[in-house]
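To assess whether the prediction recovers the assembly geometry, we first specified each molecular entity separately, as shown.
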Amino acid sequence: MSIGVSSTEDLFKSIPKHLKFNKALRLPAPLTEDLLLRELADIAAKNTSQNTYPSFMGAGCYRHEIPKAVSYLISKGEWVTPYTPYQPEISQGTLQAMFEYQSMICMLTSMDVANASHYDGATALAEAAMMAFSITKRKKLVVSSGLHPEYREVLKTITAPKEMEILELPYTSGDGRTNITLLNEAVDETSSALIVQSPNFFGAIEEVDRCAEVAHSKGALLIVTITEPIALGILEPPGRLGADIVVGEGMSFGSPTNFGGPCLGIFAAREKFLRQMPGRICGMTKDMDGKRGFVLTISTREQHIRREKATSNICSNETLLATRAAMYLSLIGKEGLREIAIRNYSNAEYLKERLSKIKGIRIPFSAPTFNEFVIETELDGDELLNRMLKHKVFGGVALGRWYKEMKKAILVASTECHTKRELDEYVRIVSKCIEG
Amino acid sequence: MNENKKTPEFKASEEGLIFEISKEGRRGYCIAPSELDRDPSATIPKRYLRQEPLPLPQTSEPDVVRHFTRLASLNYSKDGGFYPLGSCTMKYNPKAYEYIASYANFEDTHPYQPEETCQGNLEILYEMEQFLAEISGMDAVSLAPAAGAHGELTGMLIIRAYHLSKGNLRTKVLIPDTAHGTNPASTAICGYKVVEIKSDKNGMINPNDVERLVDEETAAIMITNPNTLGIFEAHIDEIADIIHKKGGLVYMDGANLNAIMGISRPGDFGVDVMHFNLHKTFATPHGGGGPGSGPVGVKKELEPFLPIPRIAKESEGFRFIYDRPLSIGRVKTFYGNFSVILRAYAYIREMGGEGLRLASEMAVLNSNYIRSKLKNHYHQSYTTDTLHECVFSDKYQQQYGVKTLDIAKRLMDYGLHPPTIYFPLIVHGAIMIEPTETESKDACDEFINAMISIAKECEAAPEIVKGAPYTTPRRRLDEAGAVREPRLKW
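The predicted structure of the complete assembly is given in tokenized form:
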């Protein structure tokens, strides 16, 4: 052979003999493509999907209509199979899509700069907290308990080495929002950031402007998290309510729920914090011939240049999902997002109203909500959901696993996917299930 | 729209921004009308309702389809051609897995649906953990991390938690000078000081250097094997012993696992913690920079520290386990990048153990073929045998005033994606080539011929190379200008 080796064994002679694995890997026997498709179809058949049973589950992962043009476009190999656009001359498609995505995130949140995305909302939040720490050099984080419990867990895990003090604030019972009075005491001159989610985990729309006042009066940053960005179709954007950093989950913009992954971590900030931002950022520039073009930029913040001094260790983003978001938002457009947001709100309001009139169902929180709300019955939350499942409906998400005091509560989400008939059917099934 | 569009190619490369295409009143999607719609001000205070209309684009479905189709045509992709990015393992992504991932019973499942309704998903996750453990020789695997760097961070947090449980966090981590930039960055986030180990003249870590640098404050060594020069760290077991004797742990960056599947296992050569890159080794597409998936594997002693949730197989079926007091906690919402894991699972099922081994053999063969054909044309800093990738430099071409960047850009005019450049940092002007096993001899030859032809151009007409590329949708871009005056949104 032309490369000077006589056998495949020779190719690996640089691996010392005693470090070689001389057995066969114990893995299932190989399959042809056809057998593979059948095998995986059999495994898939062990699941029941939201395509089969109507789903009222949300809690940070929402099922929305996905225009078929998004699914069609995003399946093209030119989107799916490139690497990170480090060679901009032959990556203008990915780069321009990133630029459009960043622009749309800035529009939606009313923030100055957005990056090209993070792994998910929770890791984006953890990065935001570390960014607040590096800006303020303060070690305390004040976190609303209305923040998604898994976001709080990720925040705790990833900031652990920084030994930050994380103070969790209780929500106001009866209201479901962050307690502003307690907030005033909790946020002090040692706080780097106040973290709130709006709509929060219970679906309640927080008083973000009042949170901003409290945070800013002590020199802390306000980080606003959003797990259901469809809400931005009708809600005042966090940037106009005083947010310094906005993070969130963008799966709702054209991505399937996919058992919770991959996700799309949204990250946006005020311009003055640009150099402290983590993650990839795409910028507009010109080529040698003066034509407009796009490049990854401000990369002196990043690990491949700064190594241990980087603002973050992140070296990828979720380009494919960001591109999906750009496609989705282009298709539904200005009017569409507002209409979809109104439908989400209206469906949830209708359902909430009807449920509130049923004996045995209580709506524990009075704060205004968007597309998700809490109900309480006499049954354990999981038991209620199990009973509803027998009627072929995914009734919501039980709250007891995260909030001890809410064993009998479930979180119910409604989106534009639901028809009035499905909502009425939901009411009928819940009523039946709580009767026993 | 732009008046200057003359030919289809030109048109595509002049595609406007979606905001420029937008026309008042157009739309590309409608939801069904409903009698339930109401005014949100009924319950939401006015100050929390959007005061100004959203400036999102207004475009029809054909507008949007054409826009993103034209943009797509500006991208080089693995589907479109050879993509020899060293350490990135750009292998071809079989299409059956895309089809599988789109099954409604996978795609349309929710992370919080009851466990009895997602046993198929749990089975995939459980078995995938077993497969990765078998391939790597590790004892337990978590699929939670969303990317390689996320896996590194998770792994370092595990190492930190382990030392904390022994009563001393320790202060430093040894990292070779060939390491990926994420290694020191992940280490720094975990609060450890980075101590660099210089590679020896063979491009390897010398055990004597490790012996000299290690002490009781060393939490771990973070090593990539084969390393980013494509060289197998032949003393890895000895190095692991030295670290272990001082109570430290061995972390392996699994970026280059594609070289050794079924041939050598990290768990057998002393590694305690490692991450996998499913988007490299296990054929899931890179998506233009994500989503990836970066599972973490550990030895038995470290299993209690793995992130939550874990998955258990019980007589009634699979279930998630959250009660893990020593766990570092949760590193991501839900359970990792499920649909990426699903594609990688399909890859392993299609390949089987022998297939994976053959993939590694072919990857190493292709790389060595390219290395042997280019060695007379491009300088090599190390003559040590390499596995799946090889590193050259611009040393011969510098005399003509040509740099690695120029060579990379010139390759684009030959219709090829450049290799990884200027990495690893220890090779000045590095050109790092990883063809992967999915390339035919013809494809390798096309690349080889282009590289040789460019080497000749460097001698005969260096100005041509220095001005490249000429035939791409854009020529060289003003990156300095982009930093000077950031324009980061429309």
